[in-house]
Amino acid sequence: MGRVYAYAKISKKAQKIERQIENLKKAYPTARLYQEAYTGTKIEGRKEFNKLKSIVKPGDTIVFDSVSRMSRDADEGIRLYMEWFDKGINLVFLKESYINTDVYRTSIQQTIEATGNEIADIYVEATNKVIKLLAEQQIRKAFEQSEKEVRDLHERTREGIREAKRNGKQIGRFAGAKVTTKKSVVAKKLIQEYSKDFGGTLNDIDTMVQIRARVGTLSRNTYYKYKRELFEQLA
């Protein structure tokens, strides 16, 4: 028995990865998890994925929530699938279990066991090629279906926005609406604590130094905007 690994990926950091992780842990609770946020379709640049590729060995298993988590590019995904298949690495796709490597490996093994002479060996070799070709076709279909689901989701989102606009609903923030963030709350509190304009002892430059030490980057424009907002609140 080899080791079991699980891999979760989101394309953008703003997306949520928790659902994938929950699915993977539910199906394979002892799997060693690799996860990352990555924008793009190519494997190059996916640090955690490449780290996993470097340590996986024949007999090991890699579990994905769906085929699109392995790759968003069909040709690249098929090449990687076949590479791992030939090395004896097991691939599991929770949402597309029909393309799990054991499906095709079992078919090949059954063919080998059913024959045993020289002619049969030729038959086995030909059958194996057919099975791999079938696997490639099924994998490509899985990629195409995954891509279609993404396109459909984007279209439903766009249609929902268009429908909301037709019905007079506000999409996004109203013009001029203020956004309260944790950073702005802390910064304003420090302005009131340190700035001479609010009873403190420091000038604007020294006040900005104190704020940056607490919350990180803060531009002059943002600092003075916070001061204006505080003056308006206290007026």
Describe the structure.
This protein is α/β, with parallel strands linked by helices. It has two domains: 4-146, 3-Layer(aba) Sandwich (Rossmann fold), CATH 3.40.50.1390; 182-234, no CATH class. The chain has nine helices and four strands, in the order E-H-E-H-E-H-H-E-H-H-H-H-H. A four-stranded parallel beta sheet has the order 2-1-3-4, sandwiched between helices. Helix 1 links the parallel strand 1 and strand 2 (32-37). The chain is elongated, with a radius of gyration of 28 Å.
Q: What are the key terms here?
A:
elongated; 235 residues; alpha/beta; 4-stranded parallel beta sheet; Rossmann fold
Kindly summarize this structure in a few lines.
This protein has 235 residues and is of the alpha/beta class. It has helices at residues 18-27, 47-55, 67-70, 74-87, 101-113, 118-166, 182-194, 204-215, 220-234, and strands spanning 4-10, 32-37, 61-64, 90-93. The longest helix has 49 residues, at 118-166.
SSE arrangement:
Elements: E1 4-10, H1 18-27, E2 32-37, H2 47-55, E3 61-64, H3 67-70, H4 74-87, E4 90-93, H5 101-113, H6 118-166, H7 182-194, H8 204-215, H9 220-234
Parallel strand pairs: 1-2, 1-3, 3-4
Tally of discrete structural domains = 2
In whole angstroms, the N-to-C terminal distance is 72 Å
Fraction of residues in helices?
Answer: 55-70%
In DSSP terms, counting alpha (H) and pi (I) runs of 4 or more, how many helices?
A: 9
Largest β sheet strand count, sense and barrel closure: 4 strands, parallel
The CATH architecture designation of the largest domain is: 3-Layer(aba) Sandwich
Structural category:
alpha/beta
* SSE succession: EHEHEHHEHHHHH
- Computed over alpha carbons, the radius of gyration is 28 Å
Mean pLDDT over all positions: 80
Shape: elongated
Q: Can you list the strand order of the major beta sheet?
A: 2-1-3-4
Number of strands: 4
Query: What fold name stands as the CATH topology of the largest domain?
Result: Rossmann fold
Outline the low-pLDDT stretches: none
Query: In CATH, what is the homologous superfamily of the largest domain?
Result: Resolvase, N-terminal catalytic domain
CATH class of the largest domain: Alpha Beta
The proportion of residues in beta strands is 5-15%
